[in-house]
Design a protein that fits this description.
This protein is an all-alpha fold and 485 residues long. It has 20 helices and no strands.
Length: 485
């Protein structure tokens, strides 16, 4: 039998290639945007719009990707039936949503403080609907372990997005009309999204129109807690940018909206640097979810899950160190120094994303056991904390309150998920090793931060020597385990 953990790493490598290279290419848009949008408030508009995209994708896919992976384990002889019913459920949800959006787009634009720009709302709606409808065929590729085809489609969509952005932003953008730049970005994303159904047309054409209402009912019932959990999770991930704008905005002050959007722009640009952990996590998620479900009938599945967690924590803690100890290099992705005032949030957000990754690994217990309601409960607790901390502290601390809220929420969810998981679906994780890996990374970061080194070259050498020490420690602990996994 092939080594399951090595197979997971192999799948993650392929998915990671599309995710990491794709995100890296999109990273190249950060210096582009921060250079052409000289005023952070203009970049803040783009950032807030895409925060709404994250909310909508969760609702419009309705947790049916995870539901699809779970149901095919019980219907191995008729996976097409599971796919078909999942797909048509998503189609129905998106059709209703888009019709409502067309009818109420002006009212929505006013509520979002984009009066006179309802075209933003329509374009955004079209983008998320296309992405949501494409999600199930892409999930099917993941379930079939067609990682190369999946990666090819993702690369094509990313390539179109980058190309159109470069052509429009460098060739047609007028800094005097920043609202045109926002439209250019949205149009680039729209054409990028359209690449997915175009390249998946065979999958769309081969779908029969036979549906099983009873199966759809059971799937939606399974998915509902996942939607609540996902929606609450997105509150934790993106609501801060929305709250920053609306809480710092004062309708009585002329320049208030510009200031609020500027704070969103600064925070969002610096948040991009912290998302290097998220890139690893996204690549890992693509491979891990079907992998975890595929281990369902493996007698040693809990041992596999525990060992996977060991490797994962070591990897994300390493990314935390690489970025936080080399922030003077990574900040060069942001081409405008007016954004640098927010760099202090980067280590906070990096650590927050480490906790998020650990929570994602732990969350397999309620998905495997079918107790998805607990995912909803955990996410609702997190969402409540996110809202409370941001609402109370943003007026005093601005985006630093948002960064600390993210860290506190993800740490709380990680602890709560572990407690509930051990109670309802125990998996024996190696807590000593977790503490060693995370504790060592934090200790190295604190030592490096407290020692003031003026020479940039010497600082670079010492900081990266510390990173090598950490890598050596991980290698010494995990070399034997990896070969025996």
């Amino acid at each position: 039998m092939s080594n399951p953990i090595k197979r997971l790493f192999g799948q993650t490598a392929v998915y990671g290639l599309s995710s990491i290279v794709g995100r890296t290419l999109n990273y190249l848009l950060v210096p582009l945007y921060t250079q052409v949008f000289a005023d952070p408030s203009d970049y803040g508009v783009v950032s807030e719009l895409y925060a709404w995209v994250a909310f909508l994708i969760v609702f419009l896919t309705f947790g049916l990707e995870t539901t699809f992976f779970r149901f095919i384990q019980d219907h191995e002889g008729d996976k097409e039936k599971v796919f078909r019913n999942s797909f048509f459920s998503v189609i129905g949800i998106n059709a209703i949503f888009f019709l409502l959006l067309i009818y109420f787009n002006e009212d929505i634009a006013d509520l979002m403080l984009y009066s006179g720009h309802n075209e933003y709302i329509i374009l955004l709606g079209a983008i998320v609907c296309i992405d949501a409808v494409s999600a199930l065929p892409l999930a099917k590729l993941r379930a079939e372990e067609k990682a190369l085809k999946f990666a090819g489609i993702q690369f094509a969509a990313i390539g179109v997005n980058i190309l159109i952005n470069l052509v429009l932003m460098l060739g047609a953008f007028d800094p005097e009309r920043p609202e045109e730049g926002v439209l250019f970005i949205l149009f680039a994303n729209l054409f990028s999204s359209l690449m997915k159904p175009l390249l998946l047309y065979k999958d769309f054409m081969n779908i029969s129109f036979r549906v099983d209402k009873e199966m759809i009912k059971r799937m939606l019932w399974y998915a509902l807690p996942l939607v609540v959990a996902g929606f609450a999770g997105i509150i934790n991930e993106t609501l801060d940018r929305i709250l920053l704008k609306h809480m710092l905005y004062d309708g009585m002050t002329a320049e208030s909206l510009k200031y609020a959007e500027g704070q969103v722009g600064i925070y969002s640009a610096c948040y991009k640097l912290a998302m290097l952990v998220s890139i690893l996590l996204q690549a890992y998620r693509y491979a891990a979810e079907p992998f975890f479900f595929a281990q369902l009938k493996n007698e040693d599945k809990n041992k596999v899950y525990a060992k996977v967690m060991n490797f994962f924590i070591a990897a994300v803690a390493l990314v935390f160190l690489v970025v936080s100890l080399n922030i003077d290099i990574f900040k060069l992705f942001i081409r405008n120094e007016s954004y640098y005032v927010g760099l202090g949030v980067v280590p906070i957000l990096l650590l927050a994303n480490v906790f998020l990754g650990i929570y994602f690994n732990q969350s397999i217990w309620y998905k495997l056991s079918g107790q998805t309601k607990y995912g909803a409960y955990i996410a609702i607790v997190g969402a409540t904390l996110t809202i409370l901390i941001n609402v109370i502290f943003i007026p005093y601390f601005g985006y630093f309150a948002s960064a600390w809220a993210t860290l506190i929420v993800y740490a709380s969810q990680m602890v709560l998920s572990y407690y509930l998981g051990q109670k309802h679906y125990p998996i024996k994780y190696n807590l000593r090793k977790f503490g060693l890996y995370l504790g060592s990374a934090l200790l190295i970061y604190l030592i490096a931060s407290l020692v003031d080194i003026e020479s940039g070259t010497l600082k670079f050498v010492i900081h990266n020597a510390l990173i090598l020490v950490y890598i050596g420690m991980i290698y010494s602990f995990e070399k034997k385990n990896f070969h025996q996994a």
